[in-house]
Design a protein that fits this description.
CATH topology of the largest domain: Methane Monooxygenase Hydroxylase, Chain G, domain 1
Main location: nucleus
Shape: extended
Family: Belongs to the Mediator complex subunit 8 family.
Number of strands: 2
Number of helices: 7
CATH class of the largest domain: Mainly Alpha
CATH architecture of the largest domain: Up-down Bundle
Low-confidence stretches: 150-156
Oligomer: single chain
Protein name: Mediator of RNA polymerase II transcription subunit 8
Order of helices and strands: HHHHHHEHE
Strand order of the largest sheet: 1-2
Number of domains: 3
Strand content: under 5%
Structural class: mainly alpha
InterPro entries: Mediatior_Med8_fun/met (IPR019364)
GO biological process, one term: regulation of transcription by RNA polymerase II
Length: about 170
């Protein structure tokens, strides 16, 4: 019996694997670093790890969203070459249709706590802050023509550079 895998969306499914592997590795690294010390890690290291995890989670989420239709209609099943006696535990885990109890509880809690109106309100606030940010950025010019050090000020060298980096030059 010859199996035909032409209709299996292997490429789309394989796009998820490296992203999920990276995310899992980063989460495990963060967990290990926090478990190794009784105190919290250095704040900057913790923030860097968080940023990496957040970007990996965003990438994974976007890839899942792009392949939503494929994932929704793809069914997993073992082929004839799969040794079901040796990997019975793995097979039942992979073919499980029902969520784990803690996952089911998390899903139901989040579905009931968040309404569409709450999401719309969040979007409105985010839109308002983006407009405010654009307006504030229009008040400053970030170009190379602006002098960084003024002869009139008697501040320590370098202080004006930090103010420029933060505020820019007022228009």
């Amino acid at each position: 019996m010859s199996l035909n895998f032409d209709d299996v969306p292997v490429q789309k499914l394989e796009q998820l694997r490296p992203r999920l592997t990276q995310l899992t590795h980063s989460l495990r690294k963060l967990e290990d670093s926090m478990a190794a010390n009784p105190t919290l890690p250095n704040w900057s290291n913790l923030q860097n790890q968080y940023n990496v995890i957040l970007s990996q989670l965003t990438s994974f989420s976007k890839t899942m969203d792009l392949n939503k239709a494929v994932l929704k209609h793809t069914n997993a099943y073992p082929n004839t070459e799969f040794d079901t006696t040796q990997f019975e535990g793995l097979l039942t885990t992979l073919l499980r249709k029902k969520h784990l109890p803690e996952v089911e509880e998390w899903i139901s809690t989040n579905r009931t706590d968040v309404s569409q109106q709450d999401l719309d309100n969040d979007d409105a606030v985010a839109h308002e802050y983006l407009q405010l940010t654009d307006q504030l950025l229009e008040e400053f010019v970030f170009d190379d023509d602006t002098p960084l050090v003024s002869a009139e000020k008697s501040e320590a060298q370098g202080v004006d550079v930090y103010k420029y980096m933060f505020n820019g030059a007022a228009k």
